[in-house]
Specification:
The complex is a heterotrimer of chains A (368), B (285) and C (288). Chain A is built from 8 helices and 20 strands. Chain A has 368 residues and is an alpha+beta fold. The model of chain A has no long low-confidence stretch (mean pLDDT 90). Chain B has 285 residues and is mainly alpha-helical. In chain B, helix 3 packs parallel to helix 6, helix 3 runs antiparallel to helix 8 and helix 3 packs across helix 10. The longest helix of chain B has 34 residues. The chains are: A alpha+beta (368), B mainly alpha (285), C mainly alpha (288). Chains B and C meet through helix 1, helix 3, helix 4, helix 5 and helix 6 of B and helix 1, helix 3, helix 4, helix 5 and helix 6 of C. Chain C: It comes from Devosia enhydra. Chain C: InterPro entries: MetI-like, MetI-like_sf.
Chain lengths: 368, 285, 288
């Protein structure tokens, strides 16, 4: 018995425009029922990729398969995918119910059946009895749910979502993240979600692809991306990190010793394959991976330990940071654990900092 | 249908052909009018007799070209005079209207706004006769009861100016109001804050900002005045503007001198329209 | 602005004055005066009395109300034709053309309307008359044996009306269709819609304000047109504006002319009002 084909598969998909290549040889597959996100800065090609899956653009080369069936020459209105548009594209001239019924009417479903299925899907997204409302009477979150219901009523193989949370305010966005994840597990439909917001991608997804300049830099679980970023871009883009430029001074296996441009010596883990002595590298250390202490003894057992002076406190509740500086070197950020132990920390204090070598990830510096 | 959505090729071709045919339909009458201005024949009709400039510069009957046709030249002068008056009045009143409707609240504002729009939906010929009726009643009253002869209230150029103004002012008000609506009031507040009087703030900040729209409205007014026929026809006296003169000639049976006038008119209005576009582009900044 | 209330009141009065003069003396009072005149009967030389005689004439003489009805029906037909011909063009310019070619096509639509209506009508006369280009072309193609007169009939009037009104239909349609974001059409396709169902359920409902405002203006312009029927329809054009002109200028029967004018105004306003009501629009939003 052969395994069921993945819900969505892209094989070497490339999209070239007259003057640039938007998507370059992207390969991936999304197993049935999973939440897959494509995360990247604006202009990275993620929207083009999504529009090719929906059928609004043709790949220059490569192939897109849905449930194992090639989508070449299949127009968008015949594809078993539906899309939640960036600004939702709810038809303002129709009521909520008419919006949701639009696709069913196209399929010539019987009116009674349409009414039943519309009410049913509206109830599932928590909008029972709202089918008579006009679109402009809805709140931002309700519009999101109508847009999803309008697609889900058609039972697509894959639901595409084009940054639908972008227009919402912060509080509602936080709420909708959780809600979207719940809806996805409830409907058990494959979601392909594109966003430039890492927190959306990390919170909701089973798998995240980080995209940059038209290629996938890394595909993995949110944890993988955070703890084992495969490239310098991912290390810098996912989560926060202090970044140093430097050169390899000594190495044994993957453990390297690096001297930064301003003279700091630190131990790091070679994250993208073997490095050689005097290679130019970029080193990333997350502020929250740095141990902070007033006592030098706390640095025992850590691979890098330095003393620095506090130059600024950025208080932000759980995300509070200290700006620290070693004389003659650049400032960098350290997370302040909010346990109370550092409540009295103030500018000018001398503190001790340290981290394990595997928390400092070194990547070969891109050629200038 | 959208450019990137697959559509059957023959439908696309059919659509493109339709668009082509449409623009041909738009261009045809104008092309024909222009071409026959150069036909070496006494009638603007087939057959084509060869190329001539007689209809522009000829000076012997029956071939009197535009530049030697006294009646036509006079009519052009009349139209120009009328259009300048209309444009001047329209821009002036439109500017005060724009400030009134955009900046002030007063009783019956919305009613007045709708009344202000009405001249655009009243047929031009009715605007013409209503003004004719009213002005004649006043003139008759003045003559009968007061013994005053007020020639300006009898059919003639002053009435033509007023008749055209009565609806062109609406258009000008819409253009200038639209621009004033986009004006950032904080610029005026800044001027006041820097010591300007309210009038100086308007004079040095707001009016310069409105200027592109005022110029555009003025040019469009000139264009509309030159082209107007219906309202003018009912109010015209002995001095006829160009459209009325041409209409009379056309009814008598035309010579290609009318083609020549038309060609010149087209050239002039294209130039004017180009100016309008340039000014509105300026206004968008 | 921080002007004192007194200054503000004076400014308001100064700004109101030109508006009131314009609307009062050139729009409102003249129309009231015309209304009064239309209810005045001429009983002898310089003898007048109030009465309904002018309106009675209209309803009693079949020739007048026939012309009236004919003008109205032909104007409705011209409006429909303009809409049907103009809509695909507007859609093409708004949704299919891109960048420079879009701006260019839009400009091309405007060009004929920078030229006086008289010149445009003159062009059609040259094309359609017996010695005209269309007749010549038909003969050259061997479709007809001798010159054909295509002028002075209702079809010629229709061609002229549609031509002359096209801009006022196409521009509001383009504005309306331009504001329809592509994503609505894409969403229609994405949900399984076909070109036709998307046109009917998404594009046309969205364009409705443009369709209404275009239709209102075109209808009004056709109804009030004088040049086109007279020049392309000839002596028997039987257009109601012609009847008004005859009463005013040829017969010098202003009372009758005023009554005709009121009837035309009422019809025109009625249709405008009906159009606005049916589509739920307001005049300020449609024209302003």
């Amino acid at each position: 018995m052969t395994a069921a084909p993945p819900d969505l598969e892209c094989r070497a998909v490339t999209k070239a425009f007259a003057d640039f290549v938007a998507v370059r040889g992207v390969d991936f597959s999304v197993p049935a029922g999973s939440f897959f996100s494509i995360l990247g800065p604006s202009g990275c090609g993620k929207t083009t990729l999504l529009r090719m899956i929906a059928g609004f653009a043709d790949p220059s080369s490569g192939e897109i398969l849905i449930k194992g069936r090639s989508m070449r020459e299949v127009p968008p209105n015949r594809r078993p995918v539906n899309m939640v548009f960036q600004h939702l594209a709810l038809f303002p001239m129709m009521s909520v119910g008419e919006n949701v019924a639009f696709g069913l009417r196209r399929r010539k479903v019987m009116p009674a059946e349409i009414t039943r299925r519309v009410e049913d899907v509206l109830a599932r997204v928590g909008l029972a009895g709202m089918s008579g409302r006009r679109i402009e009477q809805l709140s931002g979150g309700q519009k999101q749910r109508v847009a999803i219901a309008r697609c889900m009523v058609l039972e697509p193989d894959v639901l595409l979502l084009d940054e639908p949370l972008g227009a919402l305010d912060l509080k509602l966005r936080e709420h909708m993240k959780v809600e979207l994840k719940k809806l996805q597990s409830e409907f058990r439909t494959t979601f392909v979600y594109i966003t430039h917001d890492q927190s959306e991608a990390l919170v909701m997804s089973d798998t995240v692809a980080v995209m940059n300049h038209g290629v996938f830099e890394q595909v993995g679980s949110p944890r993988d991306l955070y703890f084992q970023p495969a490239t310098a871009f991912v290390a810098g883009f996912v989560g926060d990190a202090n970044r140093w430029q430097g050169r390899v001074e000594a190495l044994s296996g993957n453990a390297v010793s690096i001297r930064t441009e301003d003279g700091l010596v630190l131990r790091a883990h070679a994250a993208d394959g073997a490095l050689a002595a005097s290679d130019a590298v970029a080193v990333f250390v997350r502020p929250e991976a740095i141990t902070l202490s007033r006592e030098p003894a706390a640095m025992l057992g850590l691979d890098t330990g330095i003393a620095a002076t506090i130059t600024g406190i950025l208080f932000n509740g759980a995300n509070s940071r200290a700006l620290v500086k070693v004389a003659g070197q650049r400032e960098f950020e350290v997370a302040i654990p909010q346990t109370g132990a550092f409540a009295g920390l103030s500018v000018g204090d001398v503190v001790h900092l340290g981290w394990r070598a595997d928390q400092a990830r070194a990547y070969r510096a891109p050629r200038p | 249908m959208l450019p990137h959505i697959p559509t059957s090729p023959w439908l696309r071709t059919l659509y493109a052909a339709y668009i082509g045919a449409f623009f041909l339909y738009l261009a045809l009458p104008l092309a024909v009018v222009s071409a026959f201005a150069f036909n070496d024949s006494n009638f603007p009709a087939l057959p084509w007799q060869g190329f001539t400039l007689d209809w522009f510069i000829g000076n012997a009957a029956p071939r009197i070209g535009v530049f030697n046709d006294g009646a036509i030249l006079k009519a052009i002068g009349t139209s120009a005079l009328v259009s300048v008056w209309v444009a001047g009045l329209a821009v002036l009143v439109a500017t005060t209207n724009a400030f009134l409707f955009e900046r002030y609240a007063f009783p019956l504002k919305s009613v007045l706004y709708v009344v202000m729009l009405l001249p655009l939906v009243v047929p031009g010929i009715i605007l013409g006769i209503s003004i004719l009726v009213f002005s004649s009643r006043i003139a008759n009253f003045a003559q009968g009861e007061l013994g005053l002869r007020i020639n300006a209230l009898r059919p003639g150029l002053p009435l033509v100016v007023l008749g055209q103004f009565s609806f062109i002012a609406t258009m000008a008000t819409l253009v200038i109001s639209a621009r004033l609506r986009k004006f950032d009031r904080s610029l005026e507040e800044a001027a006041l804050n820097l010591g300007a009087t309210p009038w100086q703030a308007i004079r040095h900040v707001t009016l310069p900002y409105l200027m592109p729209a005022m110029v555009a409205a003025g040019l469009v007014s000139i264009l509309m005045s030159f082209e107007n026929f219906n309202t003018t026809l009912m109010l015209v006296g002995s001095d006829a503007p160009l459209t009325v003169t041409m209409f009379d000639r056309l009814k008598q049976g035309s010579t290609p001198v009318l083609n020549a006038v038309s060609l010149l008119l087209m050239a002039a209005s294209s130039l004017l329209a180009l100016l309008v576009i340039l000014f509105q582009r300026g206004a968008r900044r | 602005m921080t002007a004192s209330p007194a200054i503000r009141r004076i400014t308001l009065a100064l700004l109101l004055a030109p508006l009131m003069l314009w609307l009062g003396l050139l729009v409102v009072i003249p129309h009231i005066d015309m209304l009064l005149l239309s209810f005045t009967e001429k009983t002898g030389v310089r003898q007048y009395q109030p009465g309904l005689a002018n309106y009675r004439t209209f309803f009693v003489e079949p020739v007048y109300w026939t012309i009236f009805l004919r003008t109205a029906l032909m104007s409705i037909l011209a409006t429909l034709l303009t809409l049907v011909i103009g809509f695909p063009v507007a859609y093409f310019i708004a949704k299919l053309a891109r960048g420079r070619s879009k701006a260019f096509l839009f400009l091309l639509c405007l060009v004929p309307f920078w030229v006086s209506e008289l010149v445009r009508t003159f062009g059609w006369m040259i094309l359609l008359r017996e010695t005209g280009l269309v007749s010549g072309a038909l003969q050259a193609l061997g479709l007809v044996s001798g010159p054909v007169e295509l002028l002075y009939n209702d079809a010629a009037i229709m061609v002229g009306l549609v031509y002359t009104s096209m801009l006022f239909m196409v521009v509001p349609l383009i504005t309306a269709l331009d504001s329809l974001d592509d994503s609505f059409i894409e969403a229609g396709y994405d949900l399984g819609g076909s070109g036709w169902s998307i046109l009917r359920e998404i594009v046309i409902p969205h364009a409705m304000p443009g369709i209404v405002s275009g239709s209102i203006v075109v209808f009004m312009l056709s109804l009030g047109n004088y040049l086109t029927p007279v020049l392309l329809g000839g002596k028997d054009s039987l257009w109601f504006t012609g009847a008004i002109y005859t009463q005013f200028i040829t017969r010098f029967n202003w009372e009758q002319g005023a009554a005709f004018g009121m009837l035309l105004l009422v019809l025109s306003s009625l249709i405008v009002w009906l159009g606005l009501k049916l589509s739920g629009q307001t005049l300020s939003r449609t024209v302003g």
